[in-house]
Design brief:
CATH topology of the largest domain in chain A: Glutathione S-transferase Yfyf (Class Pi), Chain A, domain 2
Largest sheet of chain A: 4 strands, mixed
Number of domains of chain A: 2
Distance between the termini of chain A: 47 Å
Order of helices and strands of chain A: EHEHHEEHHHHHHH
Radius of gyration of chain A: 18 Å
Strand order of the largest sheet of chain A: 2-1-3-4
Oligomer: homodimer
CATH class of the largest domain in chain A: Mainly Alpha
Chain lengths: ~240, ~240
């Protein structure tokens, strides 16, 4: 039975980390809200349920009787079923921990353009966004990406945990792609400090199922409604 | 063998969710960095490792050969070992998903006093903090706590998933405690909208091991270095 993925139909956003795992695994899935407007209504209605396992926010995944939300939890579930995570408890926890650190970084990316709040427009918080982005570029990107770069150096630099890709590698690919889109000037200078991470990015991009996905219209282009947004004022 | 918990020794912070689970379980553990200054040095050194499973940030837990970081991943690990989570895959995922939503909320609490960046002092971002806190009180608290309140209503209101407490219930106790500390004026008005959540808080506080912990000097008092900070300008 095909998985049903519920996520906003016009952005990559947090759903993209799930899409990348499903695509890499060659899994049969339906991106429900992209298929029809009724899909969006169904998604909203499922989140309002009082019983079952309603999610606070998309994405969530329906797999038979299981409905699971929160990007990292979805990946934890898929990783075990599609060989995108180790089999051992320690290995599964480690990859999950890495994914949670990626999730923290994604939140910080989001807050570069929305430091004051999600209910306000970017233009109404532009000055705060400039300040937050300056700190993001100077402190936060080097801290987070430096961490992953160090792990790749220590591990021999094929994939994060060795010779086999996990969902965390797919997510790091997306992080590099997203930063290149949102902060092109900054990344042009910064990338030379993370050669292993860039090599990992390229390696993921070359995986046949990922390459096919990126070339398809299933891959939604980056845009200014998603997490990674290209605002000139925030890039230097 | 006793667990070793590594976390900042002078704050509750994110480590507190782990402490609450360990205490409720009656688990044998050492709060390493609270024991000695050498513990803090050891913690910093472990995070700098290139091999093994070094954490990006505290808290992390050493359990025999396993070292696991990220609060929610630590709780996922402990939940299975100490009957603080269901045995089924679906049940474990659901409680984990709830914890990840709590973690998202904790990040938003943090950002009320640090909307521009962690490298700046509160006083240097006070105006932005006021704006962010206004949105937090008006939009975000009702959205997050309303979600958990709805789940408690739907589930019959003993604990989140039924009659047995999980680590997510312990964490919700901490959320209510923290909000009462940081936003006392606001919570005095708001609490009447979340009667089930307040009842859950009281139920957790009455659990014998939790009550004993809260009365002990192992419980660090709230202070203005942690996640929940009492700043008059942010409370209304």
């Amino acid at each position: 039975m095909a998985y049903e993925l519920y996520y906003w139909p016009t952005i990559q956003g947090r759903g993209e980390y799930v899409r990348l795992a499903l695509e890499d695994a060659g899994a049969d899935y339906v991106d429900v809200a992209r298929r029809s407007k009724a899909g969006v209504s169904a998604m909203m209605k499922m989140m309002q349920a009082k019983t079952g396992t309603p999610s606070f926010a998309p994405p969530f995944l329906v797999s038979g009787k299981i409905t699971v939300g929160q990007t990292a939890a979805i990946l934890l579930y898929l990783g075990g079923r599609h060989d995108l995570a180790p089999k051992t408890e320690a290995g599964r926890l480690w990859v999950h921990q890495l994914q949670l650190t990626i999730a923290d970084f994604v939140q910080e990316v989001h807050d570069t353009h929305h430091p004051i709040g999600v209910s306000l427009y970017y233009d109404d918080q532009k000055n705060a966004a400039k300040k937050r982005s300056a700190e993001f570029r100077k402190e936060r990107v080097p801290k987070f990406l430096g961490y992953f770069e160090r792990l790749l150096e220590g591990g021999g630099a094929t994939y994060l945990i060795g010779r086999k890709a996990t969902y965390a590698d797919l997510s790091l690919f997306q992080i590099v792609e997203g930063l290149r889109y949102a902060f092109p000037k900054y990344m042009k200078k910064y990338e030379r400090q993370i050669p292993n991470l860039i090599a990992l990015h390229d390696r993921v991009a070359d995986r046949p199922n990922i390459a096919a996905y990126l070339a398809s219209d299933r891959r939604i282009p980056f845009n200014e409604d998603g997490i990674f947004r290209r605002y000139k004022a925030l890039d230097k």
